[in-house]
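Question: what's this shape?

___
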Amino acid sequence: MPTKTRSTSRSSERAPKRAKSTRGADSKTRTGGRKAAPNRKAATAAKTAGSAKAATPTHPFELRRSPIQGLGAFATRPIKKGERIIEYTGERISNDEADRRYDDAQMRRHHTFLFTLSSRTIVDAAVGGNEARFINHSCNPNCEAVIDRSRIFIYAIKPIAAGEELAYDYQYEWRDDYTDEDVKLYVCKCGAPNCRGTILSPKKKSRRGA
């Protein structure tokens, strides 16, 4: 996923979910698969985290069948904008191990629980992961994933009503060498009015006259 440099400060950043190419070794080290976003201050994240811990140890959602795909996460109570909902957990593995475990060439549709934490580390929520792995993609998201101190958290980016499905924009990297067959692996069926038809990020427009 273009490479995104992790900040050495205590601020947090958007977490890029990992897309794997059907081209084997070329899929490695994609740490910037999500669009750029302003850094969030660690103090804000810490304050939200503290409030969440004081309120309740359970997550404000339940899992049930989703019209988007498979199981989804649905709010069991109103969720405020900026609230930290859950940490995305799982086994921490290398890019090589991720490539060994999952082969997109054998998939009819892309489906893994891999999340890029850094250029060297992938979180595989299929092993030791929690309910966060069932939060689906949407082109009109109400959540976002943020890396804070080498951990991935899901935050609400707008007020969420009870019963509403939680979703964030995966924005996998769109590679110039993708074929039509590659793109078909990343089809989106979120149903949003602004659905772009894929969980891949929009193609970057080439700069003319550069």
User: Anything to note?
Assistant: The chain has one domain: 13-184. Helices lie at 42-55, 95-101, 180-184.
